[in-house]
Recover the amino acids of this structure.
């Protein structure tokens, strides 16, 4: 056994799940459960930051690695968890009698994600993947409007199960060739075509999580039907975890470069284009965000298919900054949809008159997604594009940049609704103190990482070196 | 020499932005005063920069350099050469006068000045940046506030125009992304410094020829380059007065400046290769813009298309420089001078039209007549701007246009002839506006128009702009010496 203290961040989040579970069993009120969860989530973030420099193996050799890479992503995941919990003080879209269980599933899922990014053995990886997924499946079903919640969850589970099966099949192929499930030993084996197929199949399970085309079909429906607070978590933390796993798996295939890269290039271009074009015609804000996620996944793939240390660093950077950016957008959805309905373009109209804070949060979120300085989205895209051009992918950057232009159209239209269209209902929107703090925190993170990207970028570079 | 003058100048709009955000929205007066003070401070600092700049030494001065993302070689590097000095002055003047000319604004004052300050931050940043990343960072900061500024406070199909403008400009950025990053990766010196990249000599001819159009067209869209100019007139028409002033006065200059500072400086061979083709487009822009302006009935459309025409002169001058030869220097001098003169002139144009429009809510020149006798002061400001646009001697743009056209005749004789023919159209559309709106029979509907009062705030911005136009019209050497030092050091 290795140094168990390396497992502290995960253990704290796991403890958070247990606390939430115990509180729900002894019948405490949701309020108490929520406050405890917020505290545990803060602890989780604090521990992840404190363990940023840690490195080593807490368990048996080779199966679970703590390094600069995993730790940075864990900060991203716990930040997503914390922010999602923070705005769930009164989760209007979650069914009343299920509320008490809501935090528990968030925490369990977060533990799974944190383990995903540290797992260096295929079975461990698979188990972590499923652990994170089951929590999300249940969360998706908790919508107050039961029909839609069930639909969202059913689609999510079915697609998820299918992609898990594909992943398992891929893993079995990799095992068949390498006769090991340890990544360290797989890397050492001579790659064969079968191995490349195995890696590609194994990847598809994670590409599903990231909602990359053509594994994106679940995203719009699940985003639309799941409770807002659950989608906030799915849209932030799970993307970070997925990027982490893809980055790890891809390096298995580096020797057998070409065919895999070509496959991923196609997915990357298709994701950006399909996501952006589909987002234009959506009316439901959550569906817009779902398709924008597909497009953003494409941008992240730009970094990964660059197959360089800088490319991985830029993908990690983008995944981490993506958490507060998307959070800003979802926060507005959560507040506007507090009665359980889904905000549409018309319900966002005149947001500025009804709540300047929410309008500003939305503005920062949309500018972040569109990659406008001084938000961190700009620097994130700049790094991704730089990495791609270093790998001679000028055309890919051109496609990416044109896509960013297209995406600006629908992001700006949302901002236009919020700032220009007069509201149908002029009542001011009440924002709870916790949500106001969350909004301030989200905006600050987006702007600070945009103006002062240095710190996070250096961590991302260290992370990329750690898996190389 | 180290000094933090430039950063201080950049901080003026930053202070304006922060103060505007912190002040409660109902204190209109306080917000306007803060912005005016910051604008005034930036003018003062721009003058100090002008004075401090050592013309005999030339080159880039007042350098400040701080690492931003050191592992990627990204720095915050600012410095000015003569062109930077001149254009910073232009920005400061337009910022200050822009605030003053919106003194009577009542609608959503706080956001207006916040967005405007954000835009000015971007513009200042571009004119002084020497690092490609900070250059582009500021460039994008400058472009985006145009959307809300036009969409909220504008008129005439404002949402359509705002979206069109933004999409056009972002499409330009889509070309700049690969172009700029390729300079970094290909430069192979591990940083983004424009001067060092230009000096590195690592760009072989094929690469230059391939990448140059990305940068030229990417920046050119913002400069109103024909045939990608159509966002510009619609944008002008929809924008409120001060935004039009900023838009035509400085924002379009960013594009031309980007071509000069980045594309032509780093890729001289590519620039020389493409110069004849792009000079052709510039000339078409000159003639076409003036030609279309002749047929417009909306004051702002006339000015909008005249901007396309005048920016064509800037681009022609730049291409003459890129092509090399005897007249290169004159071409560049003229181009930079024209950027400055056109910036001031259009600002004056829009602020005069804005003054009339604010009262009448009508901009159709056929609905006016005899404005000079109805509102003598406002009318004469308009006439001065228009004469400057025609290139009448005594105004700044006379010298600028003269330099460009003389150089054009030497370098591209055929294009030069056409460009000069464009001046005839310019005279035609200006005189048409004079005849219909300024002189002629008075329109009884507008007898009650109130003229600019001599003691009001409204007169200040116009008076300052006219003063600047005349000053440089009579003493062109003041500005030409400055520009020349720039270029001597820049090459």
């Amino acid at each position: 056994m290795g140094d168990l203290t390396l497992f502290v961040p995960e253990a704290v989040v796991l403890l958070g799940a247990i606390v939430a579970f115990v509180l729900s069993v002894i019948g405490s009120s949701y309020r108490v459960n929520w406050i405890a969860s917020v505290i545990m989530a803060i602890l989780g973030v604090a521990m992840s930051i404190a363990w940023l420099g840690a490195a080593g193996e807490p368990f048996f050799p080779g199966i679970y690695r703590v390094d600069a890479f995993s730790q940075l992503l864990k900060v991203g995941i716990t930040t997503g968890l914390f922010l999602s919990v923070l705005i769930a003080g009164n989760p209007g879209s979650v069914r009343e009698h299920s509320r008490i269980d809501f935090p528990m599933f968030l925490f369990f899922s977060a533990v799974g994600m944190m383990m995903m990014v540290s797992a260096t053995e295929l079975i461990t990886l698979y188990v972590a993947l499923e652990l994170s997924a089951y929590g999300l499946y249940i969360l998706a079903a908790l919508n107050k409007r039961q029909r839609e919640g069930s639909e969202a969850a059913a689609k999510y589970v079915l697609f998820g199960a299918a992609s898990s099966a594909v992943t398992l099949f891929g893993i079995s192929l990799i095992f068949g060739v390498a006769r090991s499930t340890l990544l360290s030993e797989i890397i050492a084996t001579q790659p064969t075509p079968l191995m490349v197929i195995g890696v590609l199949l194994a990847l598809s399970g994670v590409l599903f999580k990231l909602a990359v085309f053509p594994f994106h079909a679940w995203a719009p429906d699940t985003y639309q039907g799941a409770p807002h607070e659950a989608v906030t978590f799915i849209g932030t933390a799970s993307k970070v975890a997925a990027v982490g796993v893809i980055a790890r798996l891809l390096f298995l295939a580096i020797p057998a470069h070409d065919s895999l890269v070509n496959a991923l290039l196609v997915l990357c271009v298709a994701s950006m284009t399909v996501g952006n074009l589909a987002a234009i015609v959506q009316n439901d804000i959550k569906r817009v965000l779902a398709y924008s996620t597909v497009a953003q996944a494409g941008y992240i793939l730009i970094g990964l298919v660059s197959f360089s240390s800088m490319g991985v660093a830029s993908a990690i950077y983008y995944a981490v900054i993506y958490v507060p950016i998307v959070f800003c957008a979802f926060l507005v959805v959560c507040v506007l949809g507090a009665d359980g309905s889904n905000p549409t373009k018309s319900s966002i109209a005149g947001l500025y008159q009804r709540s300047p804070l929410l309008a500003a949060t939305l503005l920062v979120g949309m500018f972040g997604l569109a990659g406008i300085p001084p938000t961190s989205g700009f620097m994130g895209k700049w790094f991704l594009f730089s990495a791609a051009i270093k790998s001679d992918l000028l055309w890919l950057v051109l496609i990416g940049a044109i896509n960013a232009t297209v995406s600006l159209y629908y992001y700006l239209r949302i901002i236009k609704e919020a700032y220009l269209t007069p509201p149908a209902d002029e009542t001011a929107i009440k924002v709870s103190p916790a949500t106001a703090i969350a909004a301030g925190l989200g905006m600050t993170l987006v702007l600070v990482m945009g103006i002062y990207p240095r710190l996070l970028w250096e961590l991302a570079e260290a992370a990329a070196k750690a898996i190389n | 020499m180290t000094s933090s003058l430039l950063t201080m100048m950049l901080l003026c709009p930053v202070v304006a932005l922060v103060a505007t955000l912190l002040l409660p929205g109902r204190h209109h007066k306080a917000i306007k005063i803060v912005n005016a003070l910051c604008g005034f401070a930036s003018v003062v600092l721009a003058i100090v920069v002008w004075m401090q700049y050592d013309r005999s030494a030339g080159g880039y001065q007042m350098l400040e350099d701080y690492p931003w993302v050191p592992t990627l070689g990204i720095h915050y590097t600012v410095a000015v050469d003569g062109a930077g000095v001149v254009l910073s002055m232009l920005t400061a003047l337009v910022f200050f006068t822009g605030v003053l000319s919106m003194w009577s604004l009542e609608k959503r004052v706080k956001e207006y000045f916040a967005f405007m300050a954000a835009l000015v931050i971007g513009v200042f940043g571009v004119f002084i940046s020497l690092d490609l990343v900070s250059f582009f960072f500021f460039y994008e900061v400058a472009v985006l506030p145009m959307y809300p500024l036009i969409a909220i406070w504008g008129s005439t199909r404002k949402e359509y125009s705002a979206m069109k403008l933004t999409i056009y400009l972002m499409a330009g950025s889509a070309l700049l992304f690969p172009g700029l990053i390729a300079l970094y990766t290909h430069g192979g010196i591990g940083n983004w410094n424009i001067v060092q990249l230009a000096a590195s000599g690592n760009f072989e001819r094929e690469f230059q020829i391939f990448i140059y159009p990305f940068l030229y067209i990417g920046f050119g869209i913002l400069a109103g380059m024909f045939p990608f100019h159509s966002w510009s007139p619609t944008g002008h028409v929809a924008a409120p007065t001060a935004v039009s002033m900023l838009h035509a006065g400085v924002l379009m200059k960013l594009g031309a400046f980007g071509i000069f500072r980045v594309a032509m400086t780093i890729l001289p061979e590519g620039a020389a290769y493409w110069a004849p083709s792009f000079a052709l487009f510039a000339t078409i822009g000159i003639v076409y813009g003036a030609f279309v302006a002749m047929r417009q009935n909306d004051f702002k459309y006339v000015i909008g298309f005249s901007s396309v025409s005048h920016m064509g002169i800037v681009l022609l001058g730049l291409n003459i420089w890129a092509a090399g030869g005897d007249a290169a220097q004159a071409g560049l001098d003229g181009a930079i001078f024209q950027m400055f003169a056109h910036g001031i002139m259009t600002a004056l144009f829009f602020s005069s039209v804005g003054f009339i429009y604010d009262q009448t809510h009508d901009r159709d020149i056929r609905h006016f007549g005899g404005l000079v006798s109805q509102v003598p002061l406002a009318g004469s400001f308009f006439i001065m701007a228009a004469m400057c646009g025609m290139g009448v001697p005594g105004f700044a743009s006379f010298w600028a246009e003269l330099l460009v056209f003389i150089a054009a005749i030497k370098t591209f004789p055929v294009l030069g002839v056409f460009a000069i023919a464009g001046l005839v159209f310019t005279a035609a559309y200006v005189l048409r506006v004079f005849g219909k709106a300024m002189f002629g029979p008075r329109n009884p509907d507008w007898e009650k128009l109130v003229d600019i009062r001599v003691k009001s705030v409204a007169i200040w911005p116009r008076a300052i702009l006219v003063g600047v136009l005349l000053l440089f019209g009579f003493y062109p050497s003041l500005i030409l010496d400055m520009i020349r030092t720039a270029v001597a050091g820049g090459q």
Summary: Residues 4-467 of chain A form one domain.
